[in-house]
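Students often ask why we bother predicting the structure of a whole assembly rather than each chain alone. The short answer is interfaces. A chain on its own may look different once its partners are present, and contacts between molecules only exist in the joint model. In this exercise we take two input lines together and write out one structure for the complete complex. Read the inputs first and try to guess which parts will touch.
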Amino acid sequence: MKQLIEIYGWPLTTFFSVCVALWLTFLIVAPQFFMIELSLRFEERGDRLTKIVNDLDVLYRDKGTKKYDLVNGPACNSTGMVNPMMTGDSSCGEFGEEDKLRLEQQVHEIEDKIQSLLVEEQNLKAAKAQQFPYSARNYTSMTGLHAWTLTKTIAFALIVTLIALAVCYPVAYALALRSGPIKTVILFTALFVPYAVNELMRIYAWLMVFDLHGLLNTLLDLAGFASFARDEVIIWYRFPGAVLVVLVYTYILFMVFPIYNTMATLDPNQVEAARDLGAKTWRIHWRVIIPHTRPGIAVGCIMTFMLAAGSFSVPYIITRGLQPKWFTQLIYDKFFESSNWNQGSAYSFTLLLICIVFIFAVMAIFGVKLRQLAR
Amino acid sequence: MDRGDALLNIFIGMFVMFMFLPLVLMILAAFNSVSPPSVTNWQELTLAWFPRLLAEDRLIGCLQNSFRIAIFVVPASVLLGLSAAILLTRLEGWATNVLYAFLISPMLTPGIVLGIATIVFWRNFSVGADLYTTILAQTTFIASFPMLIIMARLQRKNRSQEEAALDLGASPFFLFRRVTFPFLLPAILSSAALAFLMSFENYNTTVFSIGGSCTLTTEIAAQARKAHTPVINALGVIFVTVTVLFSVIYTLRKQWEK
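Now the answer. The structure tokens for the assembled complex follow.
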């Protein structure tokens, strides 16, 4: 800190520190903390308290209607059905004394009921406030179906990561060590273009392949395995495999560039030396190239897994509601369909935990430290 | 060139084709008159879908929102990233490592979790999900990228340069303005460009934090899930063209500098 102030002066140092403190506090730590806190509060649905709140709503409305009738007289319509919406300003005469008394009596009864419910509500709330508010029920109450969806999502993300690694290692190798400067530039640009095109556009482009009149069905039609004429076509959006292919396509380049970046720093003479000493190709990879490339491989795996497991866009667009929902879609529904934010937060934190475990596992497997990760 | 290299070349060729096939199909379908877009069901060559883009009022409104968000996200991310980079390069000790871990953690967090955490947090202050929350959620993780880019440049700098200026009697503020900042400017500019791209193309964080509003990406996703028209393909053609143009210019400039 002393060194900082010496070089930048205390006003600038303070300014930079405040900026970082704001970022750290209000954007990173506090939001995560509040999300976790919310996920630990279980919201009873359908217990006595919720019922009281609902009943109170109904009673207040009843009371309002009855009072309105008392002031404005009976509702008038020819059918004799009471329709509070129709009363408007045209009242039909007045209630008789007897009716008025009866109505007043009813209003009193309702008020009594409201009073007793209010007392009960107060007591329940006080009891609840006394209780320890936190529990793990939002996590443990995950149903079998949702747990299965989570497992499936993780399994798919792992498969995507493995495929990406298997495909990208040779690509990065060719890019970094096996091609001349011009070929590298061309290949790099060729891969950079799909990487830089909007993610949504890359996913959208796959609709041209999977659509009813898309590439796949047309090829099958030509080959005689499907037929547009007889309406025997395949709805590709129904298959989880379609999601897998698009996940691989969308996130695979996040594996290529980290591996390439570390591999490019390897001195080609080392490979040459190993070859001159008689090492076989696989041995050169295993003993020279892969050890040098470990940080890149680790970053690629972490990014690909995280993006694939946390992808909302791919399952949302590709499944089109024709497949059971993916875990990210379940989280979305918890927030924006059933508005159970507490459980949604729990699911969201579960996803985060899985990614953290994955990061540490990868760091342990490849023997990489955090500082080496982001370079 | 031995057999292994030939195999490798074939493999690379197939990989590049795999990466480009869907994009090429999307581009071709933008010039076909049939809707929903298709290449194989070819009807008639047309440019009609491009002018139709201008008539998509909702899409254009959403595009404006994307820019509104980026206008705030880019300077905020660069500022936060710059501050963190300067602190992290000059501080030492275990606390710095912890700080570093915290500041890169948003990059490694699934985007939807960032969006959710943001709306959950700001609901406590009665701030509903809208463009503001999206700006905050995006800044959370986008700021990490300028931080890394600027840090990489700072670490390349010879520290004695700053110290020499101080010895010669430069005030700290003068030093920052005339020595450090100009040195960092290329890194600041490229991180601003990156931040813009990331904000503009972000979907997963945005869709969870934006509430009832829309950006270009949420609108594309909404249309892609329903009956989509080649108007989206026309938009895709524009995206790909701009990307190719910038990549080529960037590559040529880099070659030129060598």
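Check your guess against this: The mean pLDDT of chain B is 89.
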